[in-house]
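> call design_seq(struct)
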């Protein structure tokens, strides 16, 4: 059951990263102004834009409301890789120790999502989905930074109408260090089916 919920909410989480997101109220930290409906992922990239490159460990918590009840999924641990101006990769590992849960890569306007446990890869251009962005409803991105730093150690993505909140907490942040050459390359694993990103997005926005 937890696996089913993880994949259900994961779709919204990645949608939140892709389209940016919004729900519940938390004490308001430093706010990076609300992202526009046209290009919300730009606001997520903007949070790291003071660095040429970045790598960090990340803890991802997802809160949502289902059937009128609040639900918090187990924290997903993973890694964040960023390279200016528009390369971002987030890897998340299953909270029950079942290996890689997802590998989400955005670069040059294209999005790649690997879900190993489902043996699926979704890929496509973000620009194709302007109409689906509108269906996601109001979207907000908030960030917190340690005193004296321009790089956030916490990012909150909220999808108000969907009642979903994604909280990313970064630690062991390394800035402007050399990244492996294959940090933003992806290879389809044997036995994994490749499908258009539109199929995933339409399923999650119904």
């Amino acid at each position: 059951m937890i696996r089913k919920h993880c994949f259900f909410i994961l779709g919204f989480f990645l949608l939140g990263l892709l389209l940016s997101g919004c729900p519940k109220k938390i004490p308001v930290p430093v706010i990076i102004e609300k992202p526009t409906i046209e290009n919300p992922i730009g606001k997520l990239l903007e949070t790291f834009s003071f660095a040429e490159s970045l790598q960090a460990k990340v803890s991802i918590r997802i809160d949502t409301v289902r059937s009128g009840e609040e639900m918090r999924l187990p924290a997903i641990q993973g890694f964040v890789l960023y390279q200016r101006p528009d390369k971002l990769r987030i890897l998340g590992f299953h909270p029950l120790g079942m290996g890689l849960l997802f590998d989400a890569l955005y670069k040059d306007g294209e999005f790649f999502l690997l879900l190993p446990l489902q043996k699926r890869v979704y890929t496509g251009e973000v620009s194709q989905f302007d109409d689906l962005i509108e269906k996601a409803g109001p979207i907000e991105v908030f960030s917190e930074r340690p005193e004296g730093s321009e790089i956030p150690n916490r990012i909150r993505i909220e999808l108000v109408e969907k009642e979903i909140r994604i909280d990313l907490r970064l630690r062991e942040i390394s800035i402007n260090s050399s990244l492996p050459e294959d940090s933003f390359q992806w290879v389809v694993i044997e036995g994994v089916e490749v499908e258009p990103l539109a199929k995933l997005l339409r399923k999650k926005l119904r």
